Amino acid sequence: MAENKSFSEFAPMPNAEGYFGEYGGSLIPEQLLTVMQDIDKAYQDIRQTPEFKEELQELYKYYVGRPSPLYFAKRLTEHCGGAKIYLKREDLNHTGAHKINHSLGEALLAKHMGKTRVIAETGAGQHGVAMATACSLVGIDCEIHMGEIDIAKEAPNVVKMKILGAKVVSVTRGTKTLKDAVDSAFEEYMKDTESTLYAIGSVVGPHPFPMMVRDFQQIIGEEARDQIQELEGRLPDALVACVGGGSNAMGLFTAFLNDTDVSIYGVEPAGKGLDTPDHAATLTLGKPGAVHGFKCYVLQDEQGEPLPVHSIASGLDYPGVGPQHSYLKDIGRVEYISATDDQCLDAFMILSRKEGIIPALESSHALAGAIRLAKEMKPEQVIVVNLSGRGDKDADYVAEKLGL
C-alpha cells in the first residue's frame, strides 16, 4: 500500500495568482482583473464568517437534502461481475444534480456582496436551474445564457428556469452550445460589474472561480469519504466521475487526492470517436492553451483557437477543462479516460434497467467508465462513482435517440 501524504500538500492550491502548477490564472483585461480581485477578496473574507458558513450548511442540510446517500448498486455490480460499485447520489439533491452545491454558495456570496443580479451560463441546464433556484431563494435577479442547440435539447430545464423567474437568453452564434453561452454571458456581465456577479458553473474561468467552485463542491468527497468507511470499513480502491469543465469530479476527488492508494479516474466524452472531430476529450487529445481567461488543456486548431466540440451530453460539450484537472493530469495523480456517445447510452440504459435509477447523460459517461473498470477489478475491490445528476432532462431525447 502506498504511503498516504498530508492533505496540506494539495490544500494551498491554487497559489495567490490562481495557478495550479502552470494552469489557471487570470488572462483577462485589466478592467475585469480588478473585478475578479474584488470577488476573490470578498470570497476569502465572507467564507470565513460564522453567518455565511452557518447559512450555507443549514441550506445544504434542510434545503438540498445533504448528505446525499452513498448507495451500493448490487444489481449493477452483479451485471459487471467485478468490483463493488457505489453511487454517490448527487442526483437526489434538490434540482437534481451537484450544481446546487456551488450555486447556493455563489448566490449567498452575491447577496453578502450587495449584488442585485447574477448572470450565468449553462450547457445541459442543470447549472441554470440550480442558479435560478438559488437566486429565487435569496431574492436576486437571475439571467441565464444558453446555446440555442442546448435549449432545444434540454427543453424541460429551460421551462424550469423560466418558472423560477430567470431570464433565459438564447445564444445563436458560433456552435450555439456551451462555449458560446460562456462568451455571451461574459460580454453581458462586462456591461455592469458593479451590481452583478457572474456565477461560473464549473471549475473553469479566471481566478478565483476554479478555486471557489471546487471549495463549494468538495462536500461531495468529504461525505463520500466518511460514508464508504462506515459501509466498507476502508477507503475505496477507485473513484470515477465525468469531466467536462470538471466541477463534480473535483467535488469528489479533492478529499482523496493525498490517499495515493486510491486510484482516480476522470471520464471525458469521446463523442462519435476519438478518431473523429466529433468529441470533447480535452485532456485526452488537447494541449496546453488558453480559453475564457485561464490556461488549461484545450482542443484547439493550429492558430490556438478552440475547436468545435461534440458530446451527446450538453454539460460536457466544452473545448477546455478546469486548470486543476490539467495539473492533476500532468503530475499523474488522476487518469483521464473516455467514453463514446454509444457507451454513454448503454450505461444510461443499464443503470435504468438494473437499479431503477435514470442517470443524466453526463453521469452516464462516468458509469460507462466505471462499468469498464469494474470488470477488470476483483470482487473484493470497491469503486465510488459520482452520480452527478438525474436523467429527467434527458429522458425524451434518449427515447427519441433509441426509438423507445
Provide a descriptive summary of the structure in words.
With 404 residues, the chain is an alpha/beta fold. The protein is 44% helix and 17% strand. The protein has helices spanning 30-46, 50-64, 74-80, 99-112, 126-138, 148-153, 155-163, 178-190, 209-217, 219-232, 247-253, 282-285, 323-331, 341-355, 361-376, 395-402; strands at 19-20, 23-24, 70-72, 84-89, 117-122, 141-147, 167-171, 196-198, 238-242, 263-271, 287-291, 294-298, 335-340, 382-387. The strands form four sheets. The chain has a six-stranded mixed β-sheet with strand order 3-4-14-9-10-13, sandwiched between helices. A hairpin with a 2-residue loop joins strand 1 and strand 2 (23-24). Helix 3 (74-80) packs across helix 14 (341-355) and helix 4 packs across helix 9. It is globular and about 55 Å long.
Quick take:
It is built from 16 helices and 14 strands. The protein is of the alpha/beta class. Helix 4 (99-112) packs across helix 9 (209-217).
- Radius of gyration, in angstroms, nearest whole number: 19 Å
Sequence of secondary-structure elements: EEHHEHEHEHEHHEHEHHEHEHEEHEHHEH
Largest sheet, if any? 6 strands, mixed
Task: Kindly identify the CATH topology of the largest domain.
Answer: Rossmann fold
In DSSP terms, counting alpha (H) and pi (I) runs of 4 or more, how many helices?
A: 16
Structural class: alpha/beta
CATH class of the largest domain: Alpha Beta
Query: Rough shape?
Result: globular
pLDDT averaged over residues: 95
- How many separate domains make up the residues? 2
